[in-house]
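Entry 14. Ran structure prediction on the chain below.
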Amino acid sequence: MRIAIFSESFLPLKTGVAKFTYDLCHHLIKRGHDVILITGDFGINYNFDFEVIKIGKISKIYANGSWTYFILENPILFYKNLKKILNDYKIEIFHNQGPLGPPYSVLSSYFVKKINKNIKTIGTFHSKQMKITISLKLYSKFVKKFINYNDILTAPSKSTANEMKEIFNVNSIVIPNGINLEKFKANSKNFENSYFKIL
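Output, structure tokens:
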């Protein structure tokens, strides 16, 4: 399959979503899929075993008790760039890592369906909101207009899926993040001595 992964949080950022996204791309390629990653520009370039395409610049705001990263870009330019990427790479699946973040994590699957309704869209919720505030309730009205442009929604736990149902009235398939068995395995060098090395 030709898969585009979209994430506004990616390496070198030290976030759980960034690490999960890298592992997802890496292991999809190992399974024989053609994968590209769409993200913003952090001002640093790294080489990966998959193509990274940057649209706009990454910025951040403090929200919900942590830093939230997002793409700063003119919406018309973002749409045009996304359309070119989807068409040039003949993308079949678009996987959005976090369909709640403003502006483009919320809008990206909507844009994809406007560009080509045959592309399958997946949105993965990565975290719980912790506190249901008035501002979150207001924001949820905006999100609800676009969230259903994802053909499938997934969550890493039942509690996250339940919260997304409560706030956004959507159903999610629970798919745990899993463990990188290449790194964490029984014959790991961490287990060579009679004690386990934590650091």
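The chain has one domain: 2-191. Will compare against last week's run tomorrow.
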